[in-house]
Design a protein that fits this description.
alpha+beta, 7-stranded antiparallel sheet, two-stranded antiparallel ribbon, about 35% strand
């Protein structure tokens, strides 16, 4: 009887975990629309960086075109980061400016475009086409301005 109950419990656990779906984020490069599980969430406007050729900056907008946040690429060289794969010790990051009343700022690590879009979504920064003030404050507190602080010290 115990074996049957154990087998039943394992089967139910597997069935429940199989039903959990992974969040699927998609980006339509033509329209700039980011969708999650088929629902449009926000729009991305890509711009060539005026400071760093070959790199893009991003403006994140609501679906109706209201600017919500800006991601501007930046980097610096840090001799602490020199390695065989990084001989110049480059540290790449994005400066994030939120278009809220106080133009709040923070910085995040440079990453793949889709990963950054997922970061924005999973942290709940945008809710119903607006910045979620509470989530933005948490995001800023978690990320801070660590890259600029290190850059200024070096």
């Amino acid at each position: 009887m115990k074996k049957v109950l154990t087998l039943l419990l394992i089967t139910v656990s597997i069935a429940i975990s199989a039903k959990k779906e992974k969040t699927e984020l998609e980006y339509d490069k033509k329209t700039g629309i980011v969708t999650v599980d088929g629902a449009s969430v926000f729009k991305v406007v890509e711009e060539k960086s005026s400071i760093h050729p070959g790199v893009k900056d991003y403006t994140i907008q609501s679906l109706d075109g209201k600017n919500l946040l800006l991601l501007v690429f930046d980097n610096y060289e840090d001799y602490h980061k020199v390695s065989q794969s990084n001989p110049n010790g480059k540290v790449n990051f994005y400066k994030v400016t939120f278009f809220d009343a106080s133009k709040s700022k923070c910085e995040i690590s440079y990453n793949f475009f889709k990963s950054i879009m997922k970061l924005i979504y999973t942290n709940g920064l945008i809710k119903e086409g607006q910045l979620d003030t509470e989530k933005v404050e948490i995001f800023i507190t978690k990320n801070g301005m660590r890259f600029s602080e290190l850059k200024d010290r070096r």
